[in-house]
Design brief:
266 residues; alpha/beta; Rossmann fold; 7-stranded parallel sheet; 49% helix; disordered C terminus; oxidoreductase activity; SDR family oxidoreductase; NAD(P)-bd_dom_sf; SDR_fam
Length: 266
């Protein structure tokens, strides 16, 4: 098959949908993967006929990865220019109040699922010149976030994985990049915060932080794939955190602690 291809997990909504449309508009073949079949069908409506494939995929299931990628390979001639590990969930709240099930699920999807995808896609990426792994990390992977420590921990892990693989896979011609958006206007923000009646969206807005349009993340993904930077931050909050974490970490720590205190008083 002529042209370039991208395989996107979490392709049923949010960042995955926006990136699918952005790359599709530029002539790429798009593989959509998710557990939400109806959502993938909606995403596909924004893609040209014959320009996409749909794959039911639970990223924690290694066998499903093999089956999905085998089907994708039949559409692309066995090549994959970009693997976009984007599937993720966000569950927040104090660590001691989180359930074991929620903790295990966040780690399994947000980190183990990324590892599963990279291992499964490696042969296709290796056999495609100048291929790229793009992993969705987060602004929460820049500095640890109180009230989101498990989620934040997985995003730090994704960041470390990306950095290491950009070196480890260099001899195979595979680049590795991390997308680090701040709070993005996606359905993830509507999820509940453990121990609170408020949603993540309401908590973010109460803290005076910006919610970034998802289209900006799609553009950031394109720039990450075609650029030289390991980490691509998207949104004002992510850029400010990256600057503060590098140049004034103590002040950042104090300010985040004060913000946490104000939130607990409400």
């Amino acid at each position: 098959m002529a042209g370039k291809s991208i395989f996107i997990t979490g392709g049923a909504s949010g960042i995955g949908r926006a990136v699918a449309h952005y790359f599709g508009e530029r002539g790429w073949f798009v593989g959509l993967a998710d557990v939400n079949d109806a959502g993938m069908a909606e995403t596909a409506k924004g893609l040209a006929e014959g320009q996409f494939s749909i794959h039911h995929l639970d990223v924690t299931d290694r066998q499903q990865w093999k089956e999905a990628l085998a089907a994708f390979a039949t559409k692309t001639g066995g090549t994959m220019d970009v693997l976009f590990n984007n599937a993720g969930i966000g569950v927040g709240g104090p660590l001691e109040e989180m359930s074991d099930a929620d903790i295990d699920r966040v780690i399994a999807i947000n980190f183990t699922g990324v590892v599963n995808g990279i291992r499964a896609a490696f042969p296709m990426l290796r056999d495609t010149p100048d291929s790229c792994i793009l992993n969705t990390s987060s602004a929460a992977g820049i500095y640890g976030s109180a009230g989101l420590v498990v989620y934040s921990g997985t995003k730090f892990a994704v960041r470390a994985l990306t950095e290491g693989l950009d070196i480890e896979f260099r001899d195979h011609g595979i680049r590795s990049r991390a997308l680090m958006p701040s709070f993005i206007d996606t359905p993830l923000l509507d999820g509940p915060v453990t121990g609170s009646n408020a949603s993540t969206r309401e908590t973010v807005q109460a803290a005076g932080l910006e919610i970034t349009p998802v289209q900006e993340v799609a553009q950031g993904a394109w720039e990450a794939v075609h650029g030289e930077k390991i980490h691509t931050t998207v949104g004002k909050t992510a850029k400010r955190l990256a600057f503060a974490a590098r140049w004034m970490p103590n002040k950042l720590r104090r300010n985040m602690g004060l913000a946490r205190q104000r939130e607990s008083i409400k």
